[in-house]
Specification:
Blueprint: E1 2-19, E2 25-29, H1 71-74, E3 76-80, E4 96-100, H2 101-107, H3 112-117, E5 154-158, E6 161-162, E7 183-189, H4 194-197, E8 204-210, E9 216-224, E10 233-244, E11 249-260, E12 263-264, E13 303-305, E14 308-312, E15 318-319, E16 344-346, E17 349-361, E18 366-383
Parallel strand pairs: 5-8
Antiparallel strand pairs: 1-18, 2-3, 4-7, 5-6, 7-8, 9-10, 10-11, 11-17, 12-16, 13-14, 14-15, 17-18
């Protein structure tokens, strides 16, 4: 039996100054600005300035001055896409999906990976609480796998910037380091973007956009378990933010703790015995051991003498036979090794997270920002 305990520690601190410059964007003009106005008077070109008499709706209008455009004509929408990842509702050559704040809140997920996995665009992640039970390192890591092409081909961005990897020896980002309370939306660009970002974006890009002007105090507590009463989960967190300098600056801080107690194979009737014969696809009861097939690597050992095989029976008596598949009068058993007793269906994970984000607009063209993240994840896995 081997017991492995893994502790992951990730710390990130970003700061910078943003200078306004050319940005990739699209301008959508209000259709109302191009529609003819049936009440408009035709322009008279008589060689002399034209004067419009004052009325109740037009109290005073200067001679020879064109009336200002109507409010409808002044309205237009400008969407900046300098990150090369388009915002919602903008036409793009590549398919774009957006997971909004409301969807994230309604999911009630402790980890944003749970929200992403509900989207058919994402394949089964190679690293999650339910897929890392046999790992001796990297247990409990949460990743994103776009289009089933692998985590190494899925680029993770936070606010349009690359993120420090959360798995030793790779650039794979651990989603445990992202506080769901900070998220305004998640932009998913599924088209291959290797020409822009490199080979790590062959499957696409997942861009996590943080809130910019969050104000208030958000306290959260969560407890959950399955319908069978196992795999308990807890979460406690506090998020606060405030604007300052007449809205030119903002500071957000998050601190949280979450615990996933995990799930052992022996806690479920259909997985507590190695190779439960007749249990799958039949009407046999799961809690009845019909035909187990234990491992021949028995904990009590096997002894060979000539053509005979000796081992110990379940009662501790030495017998000259070995039975993997059941029990009989001639050879009591089963006396092999039940691997399922030590296997894990969901890895227990404890997560401590602190995150900070702030920005200050020094001028209309110069902004200062900071982003800091401290994450500590502890996972425990036990295998035979």
């Amino acid at each position: 039996m081997r017991v492995s305990r893994t502790a992951l520690l990730a710390t990130t601190l970003l700061s910078g100054v943003t200078l306004a410059g050319p940005a990739f964007g699209q301008t959508t003009t209000n259709p109302a600005a191009t529609q003819p106005n049936p009440q408009a008077q035709p322009e008279v070109n008589s060689g002399t300035p034209h004067q419009t008499p004052a009325t109740q709706d037009n109290p005073a209008q200067a001679v020879g001055v064109t009336p200002p455009p109507t409010p409808a004509a002044q309205q237009e929408t400008i969407v900046v896409t300098g990150s090369r990842i388009s915002s919602p509702n903008i036409t793009s050559l590549a398919p774009i999906q957006v997971i909004g704040e409301q969807q994230i809140n309604q999911a009630g997920a402790v980890n944003i990976q749970e929200v992403l996995n509900n989207n058919p665009t994402f394949g089964t992640p190679a690293l999650s609480t339910t897929t890392t039970a046999f790992l001796t390192s990297g247990a409990g890591v949460a990743t994103a796998n776009l289009r089933q092409l692998g985590e190494n081909r899925t680029l993770i961005l936070i606010n349009n910037r690359r993120v420090v990897g959360g798995l030793a020896g790779s650039s794979i980002v651990d989603l445990n380091d992202i506080p769901t309370q900070f998220l305004e939306r998640v932009d998913i660009l599924t088209g291959g973007q290797s020409a822009l970002y490199g080979s790590d974006a062959v499957a696409g890009v997942v861009n996590f956009i943080y809130k910019r002007n969050f104000e208030g105090l958000l306290l959260e507590g969560q407890y959950g378990l399955t319908e069978l009463g196992d795999n308990q989960r807890y979460q406690l967190s506090a998020t606060t933010g405030t604007n300052f300098a007449d809205g030119r600056g903002n500071v957000m801080v998050h601190i949280g703790y979450s615990s996933d107690r995990g799930l052992l194979s022996r806690e479920r009737a259909d997985t507590r015995v190695d190779n439960l014969g007749g249990g799958f696809g039949s009407q046999a009861k799961y809690d009845t051991i019909l035909q187990p097939r234990f491992s021949s690597y028995a904990a009590q050992g096997l002894f060979f003498a000539g053509s005979s095989t000796f081992t110990y029976s379940p009662t501790g008596k030495l017998q000259n036979c070995f039975n993997q598949n059941g029990n009989s009068a001639a050879c009591p058993g089963p006396n092999g090794f039940n691997r399922q007793f030590f296997r894990t269906l969901a890895t227990p994970v404890d997560r401590y997270l602190f995150a900070e984000r702030s920005h200050f607009d020094i001028t209309d063209n110069i902004s200062f920002f900071t982003e800091a993240t401290y994450a500590k994840t502890r996972a425990s896995s036990e295998i035979e």
